[in-house]
Write a sequence for this structure.
């Protein structure tokens, strides 16, 4: 019991994920700044942002559903921490704590932060937040299909629904990324991760310039801090998921693999304009799903 | 102790919200100029935010007339406290040459509390960074 609490709150859990995630958002901001010929913020910037938000006033908008409005960010945060803890503690040891269907559990839990954003945004009684929430909902509908197909490719090739089986298969035969089917599935999943992070081509749920801040427009103080922390943790957890499923799990090379994926996400973010919601939907159900299906067919053919 | 950490956070991360109270757009353009890569205020943690709920600093430009005074007051009430207000440009500070106009009601510091006054028509981006730093010193 105590070890479970420790792993949820301290080591692979809350504290560790928060520190690594906030540093990852700093890397994101710094690289973005360098790409725009700027100096960029100092390394403690995300920590300062968080400290400030935790001390500010929380305002619940008039007529909003108070408990749902303030509870939704915590649900999202708890979900993100749970995914991170599960992924890390299942895969850190070679003979880990894997169980049947843990891949499916993690894929479900990964949807929790987006759902929290939708529920919290809808509870705030702001028309712009309603637009943001509806966009987020459509985005989930768009990206879940290619995400599931690309995970199915890996499940089919490893003949296993568990992270343990997938990592063991990769230890024996090399990472999935080095095969044609694995590459297709990875490309589709990378774009899905981009959308799950709310990074630029798919940041339409909180497009600053059109709908102010979309679903999070009414949040202030500690609730906003929870949302930003969730986002920061996802910056660590989602690349971790890609690493475990496609790049052979957590080993001595893990920092390099992680930074590689993070750099890819940041580069996609900085070289693309924001998509409109109908374009995003068409993009995910069109080319991305096609690539994912192609990967699955190649997997069935044994490539 | 917690208060110290919060104050440190506030000093290092000021999110600005641009509240235009019917300015002639000159100050607004200079504010945008301050946010460009050339001046790079993100070095000091200053970022432009889209929602007043996220803001720590209100950059108020323009004269306060009958239309904008109640709205500006309402906007100030929507910002979570503590928040700082910087009056940018001579109009926001004193009414400038609209002082005798028929629709001028009162100076901005009688509508909302102002922390730092920054005169100029328009003030330079460097002066605005200086104003933000003076506002930080008041925390």
């Amino acid at each position: 019991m105590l070890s479970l609490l420790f792993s949820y709150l301290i080591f692979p859990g809350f504290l560790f994920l928060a520190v690594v995630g906030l540093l990852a958002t700093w890397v994101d901001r710094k690289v973005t700044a360098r790409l725009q010929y700027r100096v960029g913020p100092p390394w403690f910037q995300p920590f300062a942002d968080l400290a400030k938000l935790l001390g500010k006033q929380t305002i619940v908008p008039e007529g909003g559903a108070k408990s749902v409005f303030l509870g939704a960010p915590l649900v999202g945060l708890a979900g993100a921490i749970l995914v991170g803890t599960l992924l890390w503690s299942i895969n850190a040891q070679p003979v880990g704590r894997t169980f049947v269907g843990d891949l499916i559990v993690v894929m479900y839990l990964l949807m929790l932060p987006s759902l929290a954003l939708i529920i919290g945004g809808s509870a705030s009684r702001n028309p712009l937040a309603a637009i943001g929430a509806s966009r987020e909902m459509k985005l989930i509908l768009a990206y879940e299909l290619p995400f599931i197909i690309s995970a199915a490719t890996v499940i089919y090739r490893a003949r296993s629904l568990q992270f343990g089986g997938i990592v063991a298969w990769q230890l024996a035969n090399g990472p999935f990324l080095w095969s044609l089917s694995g590459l297709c599935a990875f490309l589709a999943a990378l774009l899905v991760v981009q959308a799950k992070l709310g990074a630029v081509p798919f940041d339409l749920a909180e497009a600053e310039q059109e709908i102010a801040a979309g679903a999070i427009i009414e949040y202030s103080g500690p609730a906003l801090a929870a949302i930003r922390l969730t986002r920061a943790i996802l910056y660590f957890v989602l690349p971790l998921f890609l690493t475990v499923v496609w790049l052979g799990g957590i080993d001595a090379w893990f920092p390099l693999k992680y930074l590689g994926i993070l750099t890819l996400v940041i580069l996609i973010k900085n070289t693309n304009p924001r998509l409109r919601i109908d374009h995003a939907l068409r993009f995910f159900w069109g080319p991305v799903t096609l690539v994912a299906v192609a990967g699955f067919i190649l997997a069935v053919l044994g490539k | 102790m917690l208060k110290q950490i919060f104050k440190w956070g506030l000093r290092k991360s000021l999110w600005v919200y641009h509240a235009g109270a019917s300015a002639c757009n000159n100050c607004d353009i200079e504010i945008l100029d301050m946010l460009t890569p050339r001046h790079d205020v993100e070095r000091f943690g200053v970022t432009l935010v889209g929602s007043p709920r996220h803001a720590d600093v209100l950059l108020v430009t323009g004269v306060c007339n009958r239309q904008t005074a109640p709205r500006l007051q309402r906007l100030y009430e929507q910002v979570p406290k503590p928040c700082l207000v910087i009056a940018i440009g001579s109009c926001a500070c004193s009414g400038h040459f609209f002082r005798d106009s028929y629709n001028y009601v009162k100076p901005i510091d009688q509508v909302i509390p102002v922390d730092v006054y920054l005169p100029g028509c328009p003030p330079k981006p460097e002066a605005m960074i200086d104003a933000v730093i003076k506002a930080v010193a008041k925390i």
Q: What stands out?
A: Chain B has a mean pLDDT of 85. The interface with chain A takes residues 2-3, 5-6, 8-10, 12-13, 37, 40, 42-43, 45, 49-51, 53-54, 56, 78, 80-82 of chain B (CB under 8 Å).
